[in-house]
Amino acid sequence: MNLDLKDKVVVITGGAKGIGAAMAEACASEGAIAVIADRDTEAGAQLQAGLETLGARSHFIPIDLSTPENCASVVEEAVNKFGRLDVLVNNAGTAIPKPFEETTLEEMERVLDINVRGVFVATQAALKHMTEGGRIIMIGSAVGERAVAPGLVPYAATKGAVKMFTQALSREVGGRGITVNNIQPGPIDTDLNPAAGDWAVPQKAATALDRYGLVDEVAALVAFVAGPESSYITGANLTVDGGTNA
Questions:
Q1: Are 214 and 24 in contact (CB under 8 A)?
Q2: What is the pLDDT of residues 124-149, one digit of tens each?
Q3: pLDDT of amino acid 236
Q4: What pTM was estimated for this model as a whole?
């Protein structure tokens, strides 16, 4: 299998920790230049240093991605520094687990800003620079198709929006040789959704494998979709969920 990403500029929003960091490492190991955008300056600097120790090229952009306009500036900085953009991974996302009736408007707006508006704005900016062979990759969620646990109503709604955005956009840019795909993780052990957290029991119970997933299991699929052998896959919702939606 050819996952060669040599010299490809890969922008990953929310890439300093968890799934994002694993994706940066997976792509960099295939020769990509990993551009990581995140507000966590300490984690981002550590990731960049680690990648460079391994001989990989990377660039960390410390930025708050809860402001959608900042997502566009990440793309522009990457292009200005490296002269091109080959892959955009819209990974930045958030959830505020709680019963919907207790969710405030401010909390709903934050989830919308990061999970939907930021994705729209970053993708628009990226398409201005992408040529044939470009890749737009969304990090959606298995709950964007089927909600199996309580407490994630706004989050599930935003990930359902990302799913349809992927399908519709793939129709518009397919003629340019650009693919658009949506990776939908199930419960993955991260700081945002720890396997030992309060909300973990129903999520684990909903899986066929009876376990949480690992960040590397998602990153491996992202690296494949970013690479040359995925060129006939577009408009797809590729679920990595341990059988949650089986």
A1: no
A2: 999 999 999 999 999 999 999 998 87
A3: 98
A4: 0.96
Helices (H), the chain: 18-29, 41-53, 68-82, 105-112, 118-127, 153-173, 200-205, 215-226
Give the residue-averaged pLDDT of 104-109: 97
CA distance 19 to 5: 19
Would the pLDDT of 229 be above 80?
Answer: yes
CATH of 9-240, one of 3.30.9.10, 3.40.50.720, 1.10.3720.10, 2.40.50.100: 3.40.50.720
Q: Catalytic amino acids?
A: 155
1, pLDDT greater than 60: no
Is the distance from CB of 193 to CB of 95 less than 8 angstroms? yes
Distance CA 97, CA 46 (A): 29
Q: Smallest Cα–Cα separation from 240: which of 194, 152, 158, 181? A: 181
Q: Please compute, for residue 209, the number of CA atoms within 13 A of its CA located in the half-sphere on the CB side.
A: 13
**Nearest alpha-carbon partner for 225 in 128, 97, 90, 67:** 90
Task: Answer yes or no: are the C-beta atoms of 154 and 96 closer than 8 Å.
Answer: yes
Q: Which of 211, 242, 214, 127 is nearest to 174 (CA)?
A: 127
> Where are the alpha helices (H) located in 83-140, listed in sequence order?
105-112, 118-127
In this structure, which amino acid lies at residue 205? A
